[in-house]
Amino acid sequence: MSSINVALLGFGTVGRGVYEIIEQEQKRLTEILGCSVNIVAILVDDETIERNVPSHILVTSSAHDVLTQPVDVVIEAIVGVEPAYTYLSQAIEKGCHIITANKEMFAHKGHELKQQAKERQVSVEYEATVAGGVPVINTLRQLVTVNRVVQIEAILNGTTNYILSEITNKQASFAEALQSAQQLGYAEADPTNDLKGYDALYKAIILAELLTGTKVYGNHVFREGIKSVIKADVIHQQLKGSRVKHIATLNFGQGQIDIRVEPKWITSEHPLYHVEGVDNAIVMTGDYVGRLKLEGPGAGQYPTASVMVEDLVKIFSRERKLVNN
Which residues 6+ apart lie within 8 Å of 29 measured at CB? Predict the structure, then answer.
């Protein structure tokens, strides 16, 4: 392969981060992969906005025009189930590998995309859908080659963790903590998906499907957001040595899986007790390895974009190894 041609779907915060990392790390990528990595097309909402992208890169609002380019891998960083699912399905049919950061879409349609990709013999990578820059997907993939995961407990949403940290550590009101999160860019103008637990739910489903290989439906998962958390309760429980965290719990056993996403009161002995601010953390328990913990930035332009580029390297390093063998 003389070069790897990349199409970006979406050029917001994460999409631009992927573009910048690929451009800045060309030398390293070429050394690792034995060829250059070229962005050939970018899908945007509005083509008239100036984006300071070289003229040889197609910038268009037409997904059809993007997918008719000579593309080896499609990297998707847009929002919502559709049209993202349709675009990625079309990319797979054209024989492209796909990489996504779209947790809502992947929670709803990831199982279908993985099945389709298997039939077309292309790769689907989705590290960035769960916990941003924390490599939980690849860690679990490696872990389950021998171990059986019996439980996962995780803080999967940085916005809610920040809000609960502010209430706990600064005795802020819920409204004050939310306003602070929005001012710092941690929460959207409409934070419904975070506050009601949908964001964490999507990520829990993705982890469950990874470990079971079966379709998981959101209406089979218990979900509660953080709006029921009362400042007075936080202060009272803190005096008793407890903190509240919004935790996704996945219990695996005897062919069954139980998933709950909810606020939980935990004591200092719990491994998620000291996870503060916008960090995410995942505690996984394997039957042989015991308990492992991963913690780090759950969002952000470069943490998320970097794991998408890592996914790209993984795909084509694997292909290069197969060719050389």
Answer: 22, 36, 37, 309, 313
The C-alpha atoms of residue 24 and residue 2 are separated, in whole angstroms, by: 19
Same domain, 72 and 97: yes
Q: Among candidates 319, 305, 313, which has minimal Cα distance to 100?
A: 305
User: Using 50, 70 and 90 to split pLDDT, how confident is the model at 133?
Assistant: confident
Do the Cβ atoms of 291 and 152 come closer than 8 Å?
Answer: no
One domain, residues 163 and 283: yes
Q: What are phi and psi of 231, to 5 degrees?
A: -55, -45
Whether residues 126 and 163 fall in one domain: no
- Do 78 and 97 fall within a single domain? yes
pTM over 0.90? The answer is yes
Residues tagged active-site: 203
* Cα–Cα separations (whole angstroms), residue 165 to 40, 151, 174, 275: 43, 25, 11, 9
What CATH number is associated with residue 219?
Answer: 3.30.360.10
Number of domains in the chain: 2
Query: Cα–Cα distance between 68 and 269 in angstroms, integer?
Result: 55
Residue 226's domain spans which residues?
Answer: 136-298
Alpha carbon distances (Å) from 139 to 142, 207, 248, 253, 292: 5, 11, 18, 20, 10
Residues 156 and 291 occupy one common structural domain = yes
CA 108 from chain centre, in angstroms, equals 14
- pLDDT of 322 > 70? The answer is no
Q: Are 42 and 54 in contact (CB under 8 A)?
A: no
Specify whether 240 is located in the same domain as 319: no
In a shared domain, residues 140 and 256: yes
Evaluate whether 161 touches 266 at the Cβ level (below 8 Å). Answer: no
For residues 238 and 150, membership in a common domain is answered with yes
Q: What pLDDT, in 10s, does the model give residues 225-271?
A: 999 999 999 999 999 999 999 999 999 987 789 999 999 999 999 99
